[in-house]
Amino acid sequence: MSNSGRIRIGMVGGGPGAFIGAVHRIALRMDDRFELVAGAFSSSADKSAATGRELGLDPARAYASWQDMAAAESELPAEQRIEAVSIVTPNHVHHGPALDFLRRGFHVICDKPLTVSSELARELVAAVDQGEQVFALTHNYTGYPMIREARELVRGGGIGTVLKVYAEYLQGWLVDPLEDSGQKQADWRTDPARSGPGGALGDIGTHAFNLLEHVTGQRVVRLYGRKHSFVPTRAVDDDAMALLELDGGATGTLCASQVCAGRENGLRLRVFGTLGGIEWDQENPNDLHVYWKDKPRELRRSSNGYLGEAAQSLGRTPAGHPEGYLEGFANVYTAFARAIRGESDLDDAFPTVHDGLRGVQFIESVITSSEQDQWLDFPA
Amino acid sequence: MSNSGRIRIGMVGGGPGAFIGAVHRIALRMDDRFELVAGAFSSSADKSAATGRELGLDPARAYASWQDMAAAESELPAEQRIEAVSIVTPNHVHHGPALDFLRRGFHVICDKPLTVSSELARELVAAVDQGEQVFALTHNYTGYPMIREARELVRGGGIGTVLKVYAEYLQGWLVDPLEDSGQKQADWRTDPARSGPGGALGDIGTHAFNLLEHVTGQRVVRLYGRKHSFVPTRAVDDDAMALLELDGGATGTLCASQVCAGRENGLRLRVFGTLGGIEWDQENPNDLHVYWKDKPRELRRSSNGYLGEAAQSLGRTPAGHPEGYLEGFANVYTAFARAIRGESDLDDAFPTVHDGLRGVQFIESVITSSEQDQWLDFPA
Amino acid sequence: MSNSGRIRIGMVGGGPGAFIGAVHRIALRMDDRFELVAGAFSSSADKSAATGRELGLDPARAYASWQDMAAAESELPAEQRIEAVSIVTPNHVHHGPALDFLRRGFHVICDKPLTVSSELARELVAAVDQGEQVFALTHNYTGYPMIREARELVRGGGIGTVLKVYAEYLQGWLVDPLEDSGQKQADWRTDPARSGPGGALGDIGTHAFNLLEHVTGQRVVRLYGRKHSFVPTRAVDDDAMALLELDGGATGTLCASQVCAGRENGLRLRVFGTLGGIEWDQENPNDLHVYWKDKPRELRRSSNGYLGEAAQSLGRTPAGHPEGYLEGFANVYTAFARAIRGESDLDDAFPTVHDGLRGVQFIESVITSSEQDQWLDFPA
Amino acid sequence: MSNSGRIRIGMVGGGPGAFIGAVHRIALRMDDRFELVAGAFSSSADKSAATGRELGLDPARAYASWQDMAAAESELPAEQRIEAVSIVTPNHVHHGPALDFLRRGFHVICDKPLTVSSELARELVAAVDQGEQVFALTHNYTGYPMIREARELVRGGGIGTVLKVYAEYLQGWLVDPLEDSGQKQADWRTDPARSGPGGALGDIGTHAFNLLEHVTGQRVVRLYGRKHSFVPTRAVDDDAMALLELDGGATGTLCASQVCAGRENGLRLRVFGTLGGIEWDQENPNDLHVYWKDKPRELRRSSNGYLGEAAQSLGRTPAGHPEGYLEGFANVYTAFARAIRGESDLDDAFPTVHDGLRGVQFIESVITSSEQDQWLDFPA
Hints:
14 strands, homotetramer
């Protein structure tokens, strides 16, 4: 493949057994805006090479470490070297490569949570703010068309003044100590050395937090949090709850749990205002339920002509042809590509390093609130 | 009508414009176990008489006050006087008639919340415990067959050890200051002199609280609550949130709101354990969703032969013939009738005065916690 | 409404083991417009007497046969004798009592299908047309508020010119030869001597047929039908399908089956026109889905202020308090009562003897079409 | 899978304004098994070149016609020329290129319906049967994991002997004469010279027909069809209904319509047997509802470990991460790739040329039955 318009991208992480690496690769292929040409797929040089072979990469560009990749790619001729890097490693290996690649002039798209501490996150914020590179954070759920529709409706005042926000993200896959079996996904996510201080908080709570701020346009200013590990041997939380106050006067709850046996990937957002409300459930992502104070409920569906422009722009198929998680993920990648190519005309088209910082602060705030048994002012 | 087996019942409240009085009357007629023969339907003698006439009562038994009714009925011959009384007044007129009728030897069925203070509630508890009369509290949602099925499943250990409880009751009808228009339902519910200290807390929060203890068989032992009035001129809360700890180790949230514009009567309960979970929504009451850790979800539906005996006993029609709110309400009345007649073989067939006390304590605890900004141990 | 205003009613059928008799009794009690004072509940005098006792009737008015009841009640003083009769027997005992009671001057409410032949049905039509009595047929599904809303919307041109109609009624309870076990409901419904020529066709097909004409206001003018007995020993159809042409130019299908294992009571109607469409499912009867050509779907819910008057008048509780099958049934009884008392101001408030004739013609037409393998013009 | 293992593929059709060409390209990119290297994207040489440029193709391989592409690619060195061709043109341009490319030794993946006549379809069947090339037909809905699960369940006897099949495909986008506006999708689909004799029948009816045979493993042996054009100026049907008999004794209906205003892409399949049934709706494709005669309903969800192997193999993400239309489409492409590479171990992994012939016969049979007003034996 040699589409001169394609952006040459490298990947950090995503080796054998990784779930999210494969997702990122499908997402970047979806709209044909990227060409994956390099990778440091694993901390094992052999595994990185093997993944490179599987993906059909030039063997010279399947690196043994992200440090090697950063150094080597920087030396390649401009028309050959990667333009961007995708970081899909466990949380503790976000900050290092992100900072290094940014400083070397590469665009970066990075998995969430941004870093394992707000201090490290602030370093990245500074690096992005001072540089020219595009930085995107894969809070992929913002890529769903109906989230964009909800956002336009709510931010545009369509449901009146926002009063209540209920955000939840319920999963069940960690109800048992799956990490004891060595299952790769459970293993690093429950190890504070790799996941950072948050377990469910970081893995899924940050998504719910991001989504509620993304849709409402309001910022959490105060929270009371409670975290818990229902699996006694687990070193990080597998459940969290928080009461929230938003800067527009709304209040609400955020629940994140990985011990709700039988629940798959239950990210749900509900927002109610003085005129109506919205409800969205990630497992049926093409549906946006809209409540009205004195009119019938609406079901807005993706890809229809009656949607706002922003929502319409995120669909690839006609109405009734369901698009899902991978398409939502791809929408973040494509917005990233458009920003790199200077095409992006959509405000806030993808989550930024600032959203990433807030996510890390959310983790830290819930933990602190929980430990101190008190409300915390959320960092501005 | 002259079914010698029918229980002669009187009603306190339920005059012109009352919503819940009419509901109680349909509920008591549904299974033909009661005959309404007397009433003090209004604090206005004229209105009480008018309602008596509408209902075809002997004019002599449409009383000007519950005090008159209590006195006069007590004087009637045993085979003629009422055997039970149904109290459907605003909250501040629960304790008085309940105590008086109990002391005079009448069975009592009373609307919730039990009283406007836990002190008064304890008086009723003592009266019931010391007497022989049957006392039922119309936490009518316990009358739904699928709540009974959920209860049996959860209490029987079917979903394992309970870890998480999410209870919510969302309505939207008070998003505006409806009480200013004189609308009768809004008027007394937002007046602390009649509703007691809780607004949404008492009106709907107690239902959610009752349901979660009813289904799980666990008791809330600690809570952190937050109440709020989104309508600034409102003298009681129209919104509340609480974090909960249960005596079996579970934690959870309870959200009650009457400012979620467009929501009708969204009482929903979700309980998750180590093996699976349940989800029930009052607006689709014949469906019980059951989640399993490693099996497909189930949809259990009312009136099917595969249900437990208790759930089956509460259906009047074959599967697929939806029964609703009025039937659930009637199930509480019929259990009350069976208890009066000594037929009841079902343990915990209806909510009791003890449930009522807990409900009032819930209201008070959330208010206190909210005001003191701290966790409270819930009364044992 | 006053107690002295209650209509004295008798019942034919509804003895021990009957399902629909009990339903009728709850329905007539629901709104307190009737008082059941007499009955010929069974062809066994003993059983009739026993049911009378259970219901608290005067033993003298629990008759051994409907003929006895008709004769005896006619002799009672006007202020004492029944005013109306409810006929809830198997199909072959509809025509006889209906005709006799009508001729004696009693109002009649009768279960469907009207009769076991169109010839007998025409006799009833003539008797009703020539008399002054009110005759109602319990196509109870017309009593649902959202069916009334659908009817107003569709007949009022809200969805444009109707093009397509899909009516279905799927059950599974007869997938096995349940009648061989002596189960009472299956026994008579599969016996042509009692059910008439149609099995599923009469039991449920007529409901679907009635509903589609009721909602669209169009009449079926031509049909191609196919009936079948999937249980080989069964003497009547347990499954039927028909292609339909309506007088307004619409076409569609009607499917009725009692061999769809696992389906409960799946009556569903969908109608599409040039501007939009409606979808209603009896198992979720408070929801009316409305499709629009170029607007979001609507979910209209019962008891809301945005509904048409007719739909609103059929609800007893506020929005979100589900009403179901029994309430829908009661709405037919209450409309019958209002017609008897001359209060009825709602056009077509309940199904009539003419609807009954059409239902019988539907059964006969599908059978004839199926046997002759050809389209049939439907009787005008 | 290796990069050098990517299959070089060319495309016929899919130029500017084409909907399905873009879908095919996303589908072939999804799993990285193909590399698009050539195309005859339009009958206009300029447009073909433009599309080639957009896609980053070598300009020499953006051909002015499929004939040119067939000739030129055949001349290229084996390691360079395309191995397979994807045909995404209007229906009348399926047979020509398919036959030619097959005869030249290329694998073919072709859109449905296979051809515009069964005579032409038989030529393709013969060509495929006599050759070594892999031929796949993009009845893409067979690529959904839950269709695969349904198929295994039903074919494996899980729901007992199949009795009833209800297949429907309802859309609304052609309720108006959209073709008069020149809208490209409507234009060719309503022109018999390009679509063939069937309108809705070919465009969507064949999908429903294929799916019901695919899932049940039974073949339609007799049908009675009725087609209609609700838009009077339309030269092909926009609505069709059929009564069906299957070789295993089941009967059912198939409804396909493009005039159901407000419906998006409502492909739905329901199959009932002696033990239970299944229900699947394309607009919620990750849900498979399973009914049981005497057990609770099940909701089986894609990507769960409790599913059969076949269904599991078709998911890319963990449970709860919705996959949709594009992923289902990609599953057909990937099965095609595996067959080309000899990896395929899954029986009936994709629809074949034989399925294509049956689809064309379905179109012709409904039309003939409709015109002759009689049942037709379906070709064996």
